[in-house]
Amino acid sequence: MKKIAVFTSGGDAPGMNACIRAVVRTAIHKGHEAIGIFRGYQGMIEGDFQPMYPYSVSNIIQLGGTILRSARSKDFRTPEGRAKAYANLKANDIDGIVAIGGDGTFTGARIFMEEYPDIKMVGCPGTIDNDLFGTDYTIGYDTAINTAMQAIDNIKDTANAHDRLFFVEVMGRDAGFIAMSVGLATGAEAVLVPESKTDIQQLIHTLNTNYTNKKNSSIVVVAEGDDAGGAFKIAEEVQKHCPYETKVTILGHLQRGGRPTCMERVRASRMGVAAVQALLDGKSGVMIGEVKGEIAYTPFSQAIKHHNAINPMMLGMVDILS
Ligand code: F6P
């Protein structure tokens, strides 16, 4: 393998920098040249490449975001865009790539590899949503849930001081992992996720029962992809039938930033090392994951098709403990 390139694509996630660092340093340690592709697939199309050295990734392990920057490239969805990307890779002697991203990234990688099988690609799961099959944790998830948990802890203080009901919307357009974890960790009254149908009448009943039982404030965590139409719509409906004064907070992109947690850095480093090793072992078209503590390899086509199901017992715990 002549040169190993690395890029980040889609929504950035804390821990991506730790993964980039691991890829660059492992590639060089094994005697290969490392290249950084900036702005994901868009940078691949525009030839935005830079050689990377061990010092290029110094002092980044603790940083959120991604030093390689990211993009959601529309041009890469076209055959012309992918042809340009291929020409740039060949012109730069790149024959192995580590792609760090989520389902959009691996969907692009799968199509690209079918068209240009001489370029070998291995993925590392980078998304706060934890919604990829073939790994117990995606890079960014642990930090995002800790960030969201701290934000909701703060909201609880003020909710309690004013006897209010808060609907807090967290990220996750297709998956409720963030909502479920932070809901459990903050003692929320209810957690609404895309994976299960939201029953507004039941929610109103639960909240009214809590009110009657003198619970003076309540938190409901809503995943952005919940089928009931988002936190504002649900709050408006609930307010009509519930005595609590109701407020809404959308946590939004603050969940995507911040310093990665310790486990995030460790997992991201481990996956970055494994990705380079996988390329050198001749693997391609697979996403690296961590399953039950061991490194796992899952074809892109499977990783993007379905994500691990939310454990119904965990959702049941919210009802028991609230
Ligand atoms: O995929 C990660 C994610 O943060 C989702 O949870 C969210 O729906 C989406 O990205 C937001 O994307 P953007 O930053 O492009 O608006």
UniProtKB/TrEMBL annotation:
Chain residues that bind substrate: T127, I128, D129, R164, M171, G172, R173, E224, K247, H253, L254, Q255, R256
Catalytic activity, reaction form: beta-D-fructose 6-phosphate + ATP = beta-D-fructose 1,6-bisphosphate + ADP + H(+)
NCBIfam families per the UniProt record, alphabetical: PFKA_ATP, PRK03202.1
Highest rank taxon of the organism: Bacteria
Coiled coil: none
Pathway(s) per entry: Carbohydrate degradation; glycolysis; D-glyceraldehyde 3-phosphate and glycerone phosphate from D-glucose: step 3/4
UniProt-listed Pfam families: PFK
Active-site residues, Swiss-Prot/TrEMBL: D129
HAMAP family per record: Phosphofructokinase_I_B1
Physiological role: Catalyzes the phosphorylation of D-fructose 6-phosphate to fructose 1,6-bisphosphate by ATP, the first committing step of glycolysis.
UniProt-annotated location(s): Cytoplasm
Molecular-function annotations in GO: 6-phosphofructokinase activity; AMP binding; ATP binding; fructose-6-phosphate binding; identical protein binding; metal ion binding; monosaccharide binding
Origin species: Phaeodactylibacter luteus
Record's subunit section: Homotetramer.
Protein residues bound to Mg(2+): D103
EC numbers: 2.7.1.11
Binding residues for ATP: G11, R72, S73, G102, D103, G104, T105
Regulation: Allosterically activated by ADP and other diphosphonucleosides, and allosterically inhibited by phosphoenolpyruvate.
Any GO BP annotation: canonical glycolysis
Binding site for ADP: R21, A22, V23, V24, R25, K156, G187, A188, E189, K215, N216, S217
Phosphofructokinase domain mapped to chain residues: 3-279
Protein family membership: Belongs to the phosphofructokinase type A (PFKA) family. ATP-dependent PFK group I subfamily. Prokaryotic clade 'B1' sub-subfamily.
Protein name according to UniProt: ATP-dependent 6-phosphofructokinase
